[in-house]
Automatic annotation (TrEMBL):
Coiled coil: none annotated. GO terms for molecular function: phosphoric diester hydrolase activity. InterPro entries: DUF3391, HD/PDEase_dom, HD_GYP_dom, HDIG_dom. SMART domains: HDc. It holds the Pfam family DUF3391. This is Cyclic di-GMP phosphodiesterase.
Length: 391
């Protein structure tokens, strides 16, 4: 057989070798799923619960302490105002760009620094509030949310203050190219046709074009704009980059982008529960995301992120409030309902870290199965006006 490898059987563990296989004349490979991972739709594919268990095991032991200086309840109030102001600022900035004006980089940095300050006081507040968008607000609030997620992830990865700022700016501007996509496609309430999705795939390049002549915009930000839809297995766009060809910041952008997209209400789909979203991303993650970056992301938002609906061993249902500083499995939870009798119980915030051995999370619950009308109010304490929290 003609092929570029010196062995015909080997452990395929590098993206480079995968690309060499793709580039060679090889038409078929045999995957021994007993010895390693299968492709996602292979017959020996692992079950969803197995993936979730793997993620949990990987993560339980090693979360670095995250000191927070402000409680969730306190920071939420400030974060709501900041979200509202950020949304207005992004609407204005993106509108300017649409009219052909240059983006004011100084203003962007000021906004990113304010969001960073909130994330440093308490990351759960800004990150979780920015998730609560209506589909009309999606494009703008998605920028704010990805900004906050990028900041938290950059800090989790131990990046420098300057790099944290770059990550935040990149998050805020990553989808600016969507301003060049016709509204009928961008806000289409249903599934895109192939032709429409092809148009949509121009948005990374359009974003690059909008920003590239601006000397105050860094190469990192341009790179995230252009490459946040690349996937490590080479199936992304626009350049089909593989593994290490994708920069750290673009890999971070990919993870934060997808998490906020699937947890949000969008014109074409309503948002999923945060813990459910983490589990789905873990399932897709092998082809789409860089594994180390994805793991750091889970450490920064949690396995049961703020706002997740969970069932406790006692049979109570609760909504996750705040993450614990070092353990992903023992957040603070507000209990409010008895699953078996289907009756409300007095609302009470319990700290699972202090109840080890007596109470714990036994799993996620699908909010669709329960129909609680005001779940988000339970953890945020905030009322919404016609569904919007940000005016
Ligand atoms: P977006 O809505 O901000 O989604 C960003 C990325 O999140 C998507 O990039 C995809 O990687 C991931 N994502 C979002 N929803 C799902 C999902 O249900 N399942 C999975 N596996 N991944 C999901 P993608 O696919 O390249 O799409 C780029 C943009 O194209 C989207 O940004 C959205 O604006 C638009 N788009 C994609 N599909 C549709 C659609 O069916 N209808 C409409 N109206 N827009 C769509
Ligand atoms: C899917 O399962 O829909 C594909 C996941 C991905 O975005 O890689
Ligand atoms: C409850 O049923 O106790 C409250 C649920 C909700 O506010 O969604
Ligand atoms: Fe995008």
């Amino acid at each position: 057989m003609e092929h570029p490898f010196w062995k015909a059987k080997f452990l395929l563990d590098s993206a480079k070798d995968l690309q060499r296989i793709r580039d060679s004349g090889i038409e078929e490979v045999w995957i021994d799923a007993d010895k390693g991972l299968d492709v996602p739709d292979g017959s020996a594919a692992v079950s969803q619960e197995q993936v979730a268990a793997e993620v949990e095991q990987l993560l339980v032991a090693e979360v670095d302490a995250k000191p927070v200086s402000t409680s969730l309840e306190e920071e939420v109030k400030r974060a709501q105002k900041l979200c509202a102001r950020s949304k207005d600022a992004v609407v204005a900035m993106f509108g300017e760009v649409r009219m052909g004006h240059a983006i004011d980089a100084e203003r962007v940095v000021e906004l990113v620094d304010e969001i960073t300050a909130s994330v440093m006081r308490n990351p759960d507040a800004m990150i979780s509030l920015a998730r609560l968008k209506t589909s009309d607000e999606y494009t703008y609030m998605h920028s704010v949310a990805v900004c906050a997620l990028m900041i938290a992830l950059a800090r989790q990865l131990g990046l420098s203050d300057e790099q944290v700022r770059e990550a935040g700016v990149a998050g805020l501007l990553h989808d600016i190219g969507k301003m060049m996509i016709p509204d009928t496609i961008l806000n289409k309430p249903g599934k895109l046709t192939d032709a429409e999705f092809n148009t949509m795939r121009d948005h990374p390049m359009a974003g690059l074009k909008l920003l590239k002549d601006n000397r105050d915009i860094s190469a990192i930000v341009l790179d995230v704009c252009l490459h946040h839809h690349e996937k490590v297995d080479g199936s992304g766009y626009p350049h089909h980059l593989v593994g290490e060809q994708i920069s750290l910041f673009a890999k971070m952008g990919a993870v934060c982008d997808v998490y906020d997209a699937i947890t949000s209400n969008r014109p074409y789909k309503s948002g999923w529960d945060p813990a459910e979203s983490i589990r789905k991303m873990a399932e897709w993650s092998k082809g789409h995301f860089d594994q180390a970056v994805f793991q750091a992301f889970v450490k920064s938002v949690g396995i049961y992120p703020t706002g997740s609906l969970v069932r406790l061993e006692s049979g109570r249902l609760g909504i996750v409030m705040e993450q614990h500083a070092t353990s992903l499995l023992t957040p603070r939870v507000k209990v409010f309902f008895m699953a078996k009798s289907k009756t409300p119980i007095p609302q009470q915030i319990i700290d699972l870290a202090k109840l080890v051995g007596r109470e714990k999370i036994v799993g996620r619950e699908a909010p669709e199965d329960w129909n609680f009308p005001r779940l988000e109010e339970l953890w945020s304490g905030l009322p919404s006006k016609n569904g919007s929290y940000f005016g």
